Amino acid sequence: MKVKIDSERCQGHGRCYDLAPDLFGADDEGYGQVIGDSTVPEGQERATSLAASNCPERAIEILQEA
Amino acid sequence: MTVDDRFSRDFQEMRADRPIGTRNEIVTGPVSDWATDFSHTESEWAADPYRIQDELRQRCPIAHTERFGGGWLPTRYEDVAAIAYDTDRFSSRAIIMGNFRPPPELAPIGGSPPISSDPPFHHHARKLLLPAFTKHAVARREAATRAFCHALIDALEGEDVVDAARDYAQHIPMRVIADMLGFPPEDGPRFRAFIEGVLEGVNLPPDERLGRMDNLFDYLLAQIHDHVGNPRDDLTTYLINVEFGGQKLSSSHVAGTMALLLIAGIDTTWSAIGASLWHLAKTPADRERLVADPGLLPTAMEELLRAYAPVTMARLVKEDMSWNGVDMKADDWILLSFPAANRDPAQFDRAGEVVIDREVNRHAAFGLGIHRCVGSHLARMELRVALEVWLERIPDFGLADPAAVTWASGQVRGPRTLPLRIG
Ligand code: HEM
Ligand code: HEM
Ligand code: SF4
User: Fold this and answer.
1) What is the CATH number of the domain that holds B269?
2) Which of A4, B238, B240, B414 sits most deeply, having the most CB atoms within 10 A of its CB?
């Protein structure tokens, strides 16, 4: 499972780094960033989808690997 | 020009440069039909806007009014979001729907950037503020906020019935923003009088309102002078030094930005804290559950923000157009109700109920798109700490007199009198 933030859509609501702080962080202006490479570590799948489903701007994309 | 020269000009001088706008005939009194004659300033709306909005969403999802010189009220999430995102066709030149429209030449800057600004200017004005309001930056204020909440509760000692809106909720955002700006703590009561004067003066004649604004600006300019002579690590010093297009901000812009933060940050957060306490006072099951499981609070708080979103904004239509089946005219208002969007059953399951463990909650209480509330991380910290401290210190409370609760009318909604039995 991979995760990506669309920086065109992200407005820095910060729901992602509130709900899944191990996966997402904030830049100096509060916009969301994926920590590390875009691969979701094992055990973090639920936190990832929780963050994605709470982003008001629908800026978080989850890519399921085939 | 030395730094000090910037601050010798008066705010009145700047105001005098402002081009005049247009005023329309004022219409008040009972609404005949909410679909064709809505008004967010009538007492029926203040008492319960949700029932009105839910009914409109089914019957007439983009309602109209001739009042305020003409305006529209979309109540579906989808329409509210589309308008918030469409800054090409809807301007933020005015964000308070009333009987006055500022002139088109004011765009894209507007009277109080960034909230009144359109692209491309908006981006730059907003960028100045963002670093001071990140989650990380506001976390530094949490310990002081918590101590202050405890002190407020200490002062309630011995009372059976307290007004949680006036004696608790109101003080928290006022104190937090005054500390951030670096005002002397002993100025608290004076500063509070200026702010109350401005916030409560909305229905006064224009001259009297401006007089109250001038009192506030005199105070802010005195604070700016003091910070120029004696810079410190606070938001006022930051605004004095920050550069915009290679230049520092003029004194009127530093004072104006301080005023914007005061006005945008105080009664909004006050409303959110008050509405949350009101809900918990009248819903023992939710209150008991949160007392037993404080870890649920962050989730519950988002649900309370969804259900009782305090802030409604406005936009002005830029040009005549047909939009989603209605004929909008240039300069028609849009009453952009984030509270209505948040209760749309097409977007939320059980939209009309408060579900404090709701997991999926894409609510729009802090807006959508480029104007997303700059203060949202600060407001969330204040709301969480205010509720944590209250529930820890006063786990058992209820409405003392449901009929005595009063709600602010207009575009920021929250309890202004909230008698709670705590003893
Ligand atoms: C619970 C409390 C609050 C709520 C519900 C709230 C809500 C909102 C909303 C809905 C907007 C969007 C405006 C639009 O789309 O036109 C907004 C913008 C804004 N808010 Fe808040 N707000 C709150 C607290 C605060 C605080 C504490 C501050 C700062 C001290 C603040 C500062 C601002 C500013 C500066 C903007 C303009 C942002 C821009 O235009 O880019 N707000 N707020
Ligand atoms: C981030 C903060 C701000 C920035 C970067 C900013 C910047 C600017 C700029 C670049 C102009 C155009 C100046 C010119 O064309 O000579 C302007 C005009 C103006 N600004 Fe600000 N400003 C800020 C905050 C404010 C606030 C908060 C207020 C009022 C409460 C304010 C009131 C005005 C007024 C009244 C004008 C004149 C508008 C006109 O005559 O068209 N500004 N601002
Ligand atoms: S929740 Fe969405 S909008 Fe907010 S910071 Fe994360 S990605 Fe950006």
Assistant:
1) 1.10.630.10
2) B414
Tell me: the pLDDT tens digits for B25-47? 889 999 999 999 999 999 999 99
**Is A26 inside any structural domain?**
yes
In terms of residue numbers, what domain contains A14? 2-61
Q: Which of B355, B346, B382 is nearest to B79 (CA)?
A: B346
For ligand 3, is residue A55 a contact (CB within 6 Å)? yes
Q: Which parts of chain B register pLDDT below 50?
A: 1-5, 8-13
> What's the structural domain count of chain A?
1
> Rounded to 5 degrees, what are φ and ψ at B412?
-120, 115
Count the alpha carbons within 13 Å of B72 in the hemisphere toward its beta carbon.
Answer: 25
Q: Are B65 and B36 in contact (CB under 8 A)?
A: yes
Residue A45 inside a domain? The answer is: yes
pLDDT score recorded for residue B10? 45
Residues 6+ positions from B117 with CB-CB distance below 8 Å: B92, B108, B109, B110, B125, B126
CA of B207 to the centre of ligand 3 (A): 43
pLDDT, tens digit, 9 for 90 and up, residues A4-50: 999 999 999 999 999 999 999 999 999 999 998 899 998 999 999 99
Residue entry with tokens 């208002």: B333
Could you tell me the residue range of the domain that residue B108 belongs to? 5-422
Q: Would the CB of A10 count as within 6 Å of ligand 3?
A: yes
Maximum Cα–Cα distance across chain B: 63
Ligand 1 nearest-atom number relative to CA B113 = 40
* Total domains, chain B: 1
Helix B188-199 vs helix B251-282: crossing angle, to nearest 10? 80
Let me know if residue A39 belongs to a domain. yes
Burial class (CB in 10 A: 0-12, 13-18, 19+), B377: buried
Report residue B193 as tokens. 């009088």
Q: Indicate which CATH number applies to the domain containing A33.
A: 3.30.70.20
Q: CA B140, CA B145: separation in Å to the nearest integer?
A: 10
pTM score, whole prediction: 0.94
The reported pLDDT for the residue numbered B183 is 93
ipTM of the prediction: 0.95
Residue A56 lies in a domain: yes
**Cβ A34 under 6 angstroms from ligand 3:** no
Q: What pLDDT is recorded for position B203? A: 61
Q: Specify the pLDDT at position B212.
A: 84
pLDDT of res. B15: 53
